[in-house]
Amino acid sequence: MSLKKNRTRRNIHYNIAGKSPQWYKRNRWALGREALEYSDISFNRDSLSLVMGTMLPEPLFLTRGDNERAFSSAGVKLRAFIYLIMMICVFGITYVFYMYTETDPTKMTDLEYIIKTSPILLMLVCFFLLPPLNGKYTPWAFICARICDICYLSSWAYLFGLFAHTSPIIFPISISVLTVSILCIIFSKYIMRGASHRALTISGILCFSTLASYFLSLLDSRNDYLGILAGLGLASFAIFSFISDIVSIEKLSEIRRVHYQYEWAAASALIFDIVACIVGLMKSAKEND
After folding, report:
1. Considering its fold, how many domains does the chain have in total?
2. Are 202 and 226 in contact (CB under 8 A)?
3. Total-model pTM
4. Among candidate residues 74, 271, 103, the one with its CA nearest the CA of residue 174
5. Residue 36 domain flag
6. Which of 99, 142, 182, 223 is most solvent-facing, going by the fewest CB within 10 Å?
7. How far apart are CA 126 and CA 268, in angstroms?
8. CA-to-CA distance for 40 and 19, rounded, in angstroms?
């Protein structure tokens, strides 16, 4: 009888989040933890933007009593500012470095060209590794996910600093977007009060329209109108995604039971929205080449 009771208890722990016993053996941190039930709160998984929904794993696990710190908007803001400061430093170092080195593509060797463009490949690899790493609950997975965050965002900052010499428009666009984004992050509670769920629907529509317009613009690189449309579509999608992410962060913070380790993934999603907005505005402001 005692063996049956122990097996029953183990199965209950395994089925809390709908995961298999093998999954819990690989992710012992989640063993016995409760998962967030959206039916008990005025917030559901569908309310997350495409970016936030990709970065945050399913399900979200809760804290064990008062001994563990809960997810908070202040924690997300702190991590977002850490990422922003890191990107500004990488941007400045890259800009100053290439200011005193030869940047003419016609005079570069193949090795120099590979080294200069290698962050693009690194950025893509890290971006696709982030979602599965965020869904694993081991120390190594957590460390690797944060390394991917740093490499991914640093690669964007590197590219911005590299192309700032040939595209002076990067400076005013980046400064404007960063200023507005920082103010929105600081005053996120006021944004949450004024935002509605319609923003989430519009965000999804803009996502599909952005992808369609962008691939159309690739068909004819001489068509400036399609390039402008793709850039504005991407920037609009990023803005709506940023607003909906701020609302989601505030609502998850109000629950006061979601584990704080998801703050890193939420902060990464916010910075992704900022980067996407800058890229979209740059695309719409320059010739579509």
Report:
1. 1
2. no
3. 0.79
4. 271
5. no
6. 99
7. 12
8. 20
Reading the chain (289 residues) residue by residue, the pLDDT tens digits are 444 444 434 443 444 556 777 888 888 888 878 888 766 566 677 778 888 888 988 888 888 876 788 999 999 999 999 999 999 999 999 888 877 775 555 566 666 667 777 888 888 899 899 999 998 898 899 999 999 999 999 999 998 888 887 777 788 888 878 887 888 788 777 666 655 555 554 555 555 555 555 554 454 455 566 667 777 777 788 888 888 888 888 888 888 888 899 999 999 999 999 898 888 878 776 644 4
Residues 6+ apart with CB under 8 A from 19: 27, 30
Q: Rg of the chain over CA atoms, in angstroms?
A: 21
CA–CA dist 81, 86 (Å, integer): 8
Q: Does 44 reside within a domain?
A: no
With 0-12 / 13-18 / 19 or more C-beta atoms within 10 angstroms meaning exposed / middle / buried, residue 224 is middle
Q: Collect all residues with Cβ–Cβ distance below 8 Å to 77 and sequence separation of at least 6.
A: 185, 186, 188, 267
The answer to whether residue 134 is domain-embedded is yes
> Max CA-CA distance within the chain?
79
Count the neighbouring beta carbons within 10 Å of the beta carbon of residue 3: 7
**8 token code pair:** 């029953």
At 158, which amino acid appears? Y
- Enumerate the β-bridge partners of residue 70: 259
Q: Is residue 223 part of a domain?
A: yes
Helical ranges in 135-262 per DSSP H:
139-163, 170-186, 188-194, 198-219, 224-255
